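Researcher: For the record, we're logging two predictions in this thread. I'll number them. Prediction 1 follows.
Model: Prediction 1, sequence and structure:
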Amino acid sequence: MNCIIIDDDKLSRKLIESFIEKTEFLNLIGSYESAMESLKAFEGPESVDLIFLDVEMPEMTGLEFLNTLENPPQVIIITGKEKYAVEAFDYDVTDFLLKPISLTRFLKSVNKANKLHSEAMQMSGNTNEEIFIRKKNSTLVRLSYDDILWIEALENYVVISTHDEKFTIHFTMKAVNDRFLESRFKRVHRSYIVNINKIKMIEDNVIIIETKQGNKVIPIGKSFRDSLLNDINLITK
C-alpha cells in the first residue's frame, strides 16, 4: 500500500516513518508537515492508498483537508487529543491512533487497513455484475448490482439496501466505494452511495429513490453535487 504522512510534528512524523519501514506491505511515498504541501502526492504517478493524518495543523486542519478530497483514500488519524475520535469517524476514517503511538497499536491499525485494501482490490478485478454477501449465519447471498438502490454508512458498518432487504456488513465506506467501481454507483454524500439508475428525482440538494415502502430521501453533499450532475444524462432547457 502506498502511504503518506501529514503531520506538522517532526518527531511524530519520524516515529511513523520508522514504523512504516518495519511494515512489509507499506510503501512510504511522501512525508509532509502540512496539508497544502501534501497535495503534490495526489498529482504524482503513484496512487495514494493510505494517509496518516494529524488533526491539529496550521493553515488547514486534517479534517478540513479531508473535506477537500472528493474520494479520499483510507485514513488513519493520528493526534494527541482523544476528543477528536468521534468527529474523525464521521469522516469514515479507517482508524484513530492516539499519541504517543506504540508499534503494537500501529500494526493493529495498518493490518486493518491492509485487509480492507486487499478485499477492495480483489473485488475491483471482478467484472461480474453481482456480489456475494455473507450473512451472520455464514450463508452467502448472491446480490445483483442492479438490485442495489443505495448504500449507507452506519458507524463502523455499511447498509446495502434493495427493494426487498437490507444487508449490514462490517466495512468502511471507502472500501465499499472502491469495490463498486461501475459508473452506475456514485458517492453523493459522506454517508451515501447511490445507484444512479434508481434515482427518481433530484430536487434541490436531495435525491429521491422510489421504494416499495415509499420514497427514500438522500442528501447530496456539497462537495459531491457537481460530480453527480456531470455523471448523469442531464438536459436543461
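Researcher: Logged. Prediction 2.
Model: Prediction 2, sequence and structure:
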Amino acid sequence: MLIEVRSDHVMIDGYVNAVERDSKPMTDANGRHFVEQIMSGVFERAVEKAPLVELRANHRRDRVLGSTQDVLELHEDAIGLRAHAEITDPEVVQAARDRSLKGWSFGFRNAVDDREEIRADLYRRRITDLDLIEVSLIYGPYTPVYDGTSVEARAEEDLSCADSPEVRAVYVEEPAPEPDPEPIDYSKYHERIDALERGAK
C-alpha cells in the first residue's frame, strides 16, 4: 500500500484484495474453519454493476469517508482489486502519519460460491460472484486475515443478520497494560545502614 501524507489529506493506493489467493483460516456460522478465495473477474463485474461503493473506516457505517462517486477509484487488474483514494478525514490522516494504517478490506453481499473439502476440519470457499458494498481502510484494533496486499476484517457491528454484508477483518482487543509495580521503600534499609556506619565511627 502506497501512502502519501500531505498537510491536510492523504493519498492511498493499494490492493483491497488479491484474487485467487487463500485467506487465513476463518470460522463460519456453523463453527467450521475455512479459507476463502475471490476468483478472477469477480471484482471487475462487481464494480461495473455497483451504482456506488462506499469508502469506510474499519467497516463502520457511521464512518463513511467517501465513495466511488467522489474520492474513491476502484478497478481489477491481474493481481486483484486495486483502490486509489484521496482522504481528508483527520483521524485517517493522523493514522497515516502514525504509520498505523494496516491496509484495505471489503464488504459484500449475495456471494455465489463453491466449496472444496481440504480436510475434515477445513474447507476452501471460492467466491465466483458478489455484490460489492464498501471497501474500508483498516487501522486500530483490527488485524488482517488476508496476507500481503489484501486485508480482511470483522467489523464491530452485529453481522449475525442474514441481510448484513460480509466483511473481512478481525477485531482484536488490546491486552490491558500491566500495572506499574509499586515502588519499593528503601528508607528503613538506608536508616539501618546509617546507624551501622555511625556505630563504626
